[in-house]
Amino acid sequence: MSNLEMSSRGSELFSYLPSYYNTSRIMGSMMDTQGGEMELLYAALNETVDQFFVSTATWGLKRWERELGIVTDLTKPIEQRRAVVESKLRGAGSFTGRLVKNVAEAYDGGTVDVTFQPQEWSFTVKFVDTIGIPPNLEDLKAVIEEIKPAHLAVEYEFSYLLIRDIHEVMTLAEMEQTLLQKFAGGVRLDGQRA
Q1: Which residues pair with 157 in a beta bridge?
Q2: This prediction's pTM
Q3: I want to staple 80 with a disulfide (CB 3.0 to 4.6 A). Which of 3, 118, 136, 163 is the partner?
Q4: 140-146: which pairs have CB atoms within 8 A and are 24 or more residues apart?
Q5: Separation between Cα atoms, residue 162 and residue 185, nearest integer Å
């Protein structure tokens, strides 16, 4: 067996052997097998390291959720579960507009503006970049309710596609591919048609 027919790790292992093994099919086969096992080991190690970071965690996300007191919901997409964990990690500390902004942007992935109306004892979270209602809004609402002081009310503002945004800008095919909930009047917050 020549080095060219071996896996890359097998070839690497074979290169450490004395040159008199260059023609040995037995040693070539052994190094190729051991190289394959090393590939599996390195892949397992890399996957394990990924679990230490929220942005790359997969099966380790359950541990993050348990640590932070978040109920694991396997029906949610992994990106949403990561957003909940990330938001919870960002949500530590005193309540400020920056805290709300960081938490909301962790869920949405876009720009969020937070404005306070102190005379009305409330604040507004406005989704700037997101068109329509973010898919995990209910999770975001739950986290904001958890971190905000009880005496403050919160309102949410969304951006929708208006006629001026699509007239002579989008083709009919593009409009047909756009979800109804992204248009003004498409879907209410409770999921019903407006």
Answers
A1: 126
A2: 0.48
A3: 136
A4: 140/87, 140/103, 140/104, 140/107, 140/108, 143/84, 143/87, 143/88, 143/91, 143/103, 143/107, 144/100, 144/103, 144/104, 146/91
A5: 9
* The two structure tokens encoding residue 168: 């002579």
Round the CA-based radius of gyration of the chain to a whole number and report it: 26
Q: Which tokens in the block code for residue 72?
A: 């694991």
Give the residue, 171 or 8, on which the prediction is more confident: 8
Both structure tokens of 33: 């097998």
- Residue 31's contacts (CB-CB under 8 Å, 6 or more residues apart) are 6, 10, 11, 13, 14, 17
Closest CA to 162 of 179, 187, 178, 184: 184
Residue 136: DSSP 8-state: T
Tokens of 135: 């898919």
Cβ neighbourhood burial of 81 (10 Å; 0-12, 13-18, 19+): buried
- Is 108:130 a contact under the CB 8 Å cutoff? yes
**pLDDT, tens digit, 9 for 90 and up, residues 44-77:** 999 999 999 998 999 999 999 988 888 898 998 8
One-letter amino acid for residue 151 of the chain: H
Q: Which residue has the tokens 């890399």?
A: 46
